[in-house]
Amino acid sequence: MLFYPEVCGLAGRESGSSNRKIRQYRKPLNINLGIIIFSVIFVYVVICVFLYFTQKHIMGYEVKNGSLSIGNVYQGIALREETIVTSNDSGYINYYAREGERVGFGKLVCSIDESGQLKEMFDAGKADDTQLSDNNLADIKSEITGYMSGFEKKQFSGVYDFKYSLEGTALKLANINVLQDLQSLNGSGSSLISLCSAPVSGIVVYSTDGYETLTADQITQDMFDKEDYSKRQLINNELVASGDTLYKLATDENWSIVIQSDPERAQELLEEEYVQVRFLKNQCTSWAKVNVLNNEDGNTYVKLDFNNSMISFCTDRYIDIELVTKDEQGLKVPNSAIAEKEFFLVPKGYVTKGNSSENGVLKETYTENGEASTEFIATSIYFETEDDYYIDNSVLELGNNLVRPDSTDKYTISRSATLIGVYNINKGYADFKEIQILSQNDEYAIIKSNTAYGLSAFDRIVLDAETVTGNEFLE
């Protein structure tokens, strides 16, 4: 028999390996430093976010001197003595007096051309190179500038009124050149041209709006809505019938502007009796006498009476004005910082000073043996009247007996009152300070500075008084 040692040895090894255990290879632990750092930062951020939303947030505000911006800009309705002049004839109208010009009684304002001869003459003259004087050009430029300063995109319909007004101004200036031909037309025996003279002295206006006879007591809130307002422009060379409106005259220099107001503001203006008014159209100022109206619609209106400047606004029904009033000066604080707090009222004779010069009161107490004694209770003084001090109610209770120093007189705490103030945080805790409000709007109040128990400039106060309580320490 032949033996193959290599094969036998291999078989033996294979047989022995079948009795061995197979173990899983364990990878060595590799610590990633970046993951550890990221995890720590993530946990820190989560903790900070949690604390932010669970902790109370107290924001400070630095008190500074300032004045209060009160809304003193109003849109008013102008009321004037206005006389409407109507036509006695039919025909084409031609104007010769410029709008906004004062004309005397019997002065020529316009003409009515029944035959159309004057219109044909004017149309023929239009082909000529009519030159306007420097004064005429200055008037047109002034009219354009005034319109641009008061232009509102929401009232685009006013563009057409301005267009007709500007065209009318140019035509009226050009019509002056035709006046010299009126004598020749009338001299030739023609009676078809009627000359219209002013029935009274006044300022000429070439528009109507239906408010010519409006009085102050008839004004309602709806009239201040310009979307419902319409003005008819009277156009040169337009065909008119008998009875139609030719123009109107503002006959009195005394006129008024009526504005809307709340009762409190109206009463403030009435107490001033006279108020200075700035016209936003030309930035001129004038003094007006104040009257308050309580009309039938239940709203309050202020009527401002003027005795000048009417000619500058004779064509305007709605006028934007600013009331120039004296601004209150003082410390400016936000309304959110203002709070009310209740205090005990204690007669001044019962407040004394302790060993550390702190203000306080002597509270009556009793020992275990029932003997009467006193305990000094330190308390701050927050305000005073002629007879009483306002003291903190958190260290005392209603019904406590106070003993007058060096006396047997006693006072039982039974009275309280509230103060308006803010929380001062200069010392790291919320310390209530009484304030005296001089004026106030929707956002800020002007308070009196350097009062005995109040604030001074650059003090820091709590912005939102609802986030703190009295004497709370700030973290």
Automatic annotation (TrEMBL):
InterPro entries: Beta-barrel_RND-rel, BSH_RND-rel. The chain crosses the membrane at residues 29-53. The keyword Ion transport does not apply. Residues 255-327 form the RND related beta-barrel domain. Residues 82-249 form the RND related barrel-sandwich hybrid domain. The keyword Transmembrane applies. It comes from the Bacteria. Keywords: Membrane, Transmembrane, Transmembrane helix. Signal peptide: none annotated. This is Membrane fusion protein. It comes from Eisenbergiella tayi.
